[in-house]
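#random but structural
TW: two for the price of one
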Amino acid sequence: MLFHLLFPLRDSVSAFNVFRYITFRTAGAVLTALLLSLLLGPWFIRTLRRLSIGQNIRDVGPERHQVKAGTPTMGGVLIVTAIVVPTLLWARWSNPYVWIALGVTVCFGAIGFADDYLKVRRRHNQGLSARGKMLLLVGVAALAATIILRLPVRHEFTSTLFLPFFKDILVDLGLLYVPFVVVVLTGASNAVNLTDGLDGLAIGATLVAAATYTFFTYIAGNSVLAGYLQVAYIPGVGEVAVFCGALVGASLGFLWFNAHPAEVFMGDVGSLALGGAIGTVAVLAKQEILLVVVGGLFVLEALSVILQVGSFKLRGKRILRMAPLHHHFELVGWAEPKIIVRFWILAILFALLGLSTLKLR
């Protein structure tokens, strides 16, 4: 909005010329999202407490988590608000990629909101059925993929898949592109959801991934940088860096309240929205495969659940004391803050490995 309001006045006030730069507006989105989170956070948490919207803790979880029962949840509403408002404020409304990223984030968040609402209403840790929730996520992801492929030709977005570490190997998925995007978006959202089990763990890892993809989207939208680093050039996708900036600021702001001991939990409304946002950005920047590296921590958490369930069904034995992975280390004896910080370190290392692919081509 600010771009459309103030940039046309650049001839009268030369200072408004800065709004042409994506870097300036991305920084503005980061700061706006952070301030919005910090300002609304206390009021929002008080409101959740007044409405008795508290977290239900599963009996099968670690016993130490029972003390967290009743902590306000559905804090993801604050996260989504702190993403949407700054993006609308600083991004160019004429850019379709921004609307796609916002649309997936809001829709995935709405699905998570419905799930959280049912849990709170029933006073039980069961919301939407697993099948129903997955069908809704798949539907939104398929719609987003279809819209991306039907964008006007000038955006030069194709169904081609670019592989990290290789500059000459391109794979045209053709009709398989939509199912592929569905897997990326639903996989990312569920992986973040599984990681959201300790105070600040998921939002900290999301912050790292969002900051990393801020660089990837900016580079992909810059013909000079994309050519130099030999990555896919997608005209217009650089504007998504503003959305990523809002995601970074919202994550920082929410972490202020979600850090151990947490004053509020994000709930499914937050974890599904964040996973959808990261997955969508990866698709738009043509760095879908690299999401496995940049979001390596999320992948480890999801794999731990898959392997645990698979091992128990096939062999009748568990390979971990408890899944997801962070619960295993809790039962091993690691203190919660130590697990969180060490997993954040892993998230940073995975992000740096992802960034290194820009020069290893």
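TW: number two ↓
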Amino acid sequence: MVAEHARAVGAPTRGTTNPNRLRRVDRWLTGTQPVLDALRGFPDPLVVDLGYGRSPVTTVELATRLRGVHAGVRVLGLELDAERVAAAARMASPPWLEFRRGGFELAGTRPALLRAFNVLRQYPEPDAARAWSTMLAGLAPGGLLIEGTCDEIGRRCSWVLLSAHGPQSFTVSCKPSELRRPSDVAERLPKSLIHRNVEGERVHAFLSELDSCWAHAATHRPFGPRARWVESVRLLAERGWPVHGDRRRWRLGELTVDWACVTPDW
């Protein structure tokens, strides 16, 4: 039973939204085994998109993409701003897509998957950590939270995948042709990491090592930025970093590592 009158928790976001802004994270969600396993653990899994902004376009895109890998997926878009919810609700939507007012309490729902993107950047670090705990407590058993940040057109992104046991992995996804070096993504790190990109912190060491691999992969420049990115990730794995996936994923501009690689020194 959904708690219809659960008090909405959180602060409204600026609401910047563009079509396909979150295509990179959606592509990762539909191609990552832990996420697919979490969805397939339910005949009709509920997915919550928290803080979709002024336009529900990215929630609609998420629903369409997820239903391509699980036909039973239901998607609920949550926003704190009542006017945004009303505008989205006026759209002609299929029965498996809904919009409602809600925040970190998830409007009393228990989703199998929760996406919270560009939501926590405005919060102080301790408040963002508490928001993680609140959201994780609201997940269905075996559920997952993906929380992260991207630029306005979705070409530089990073995110954390969390389960009830805490953070599991960290992912960077970008368009290599627009990079001077991989650490350019640092301005779009999640709240848990963005203030930690300093000497002595693991995320700084990770990005510095990736920059070093990018420099060494300059010999692949004639084959294009994507080939250089793939070679950079291969070199990172060769140097002993626990890199996930394979060349097929790396060619998409992705890089996923264990969360332990970037864990802040809290």
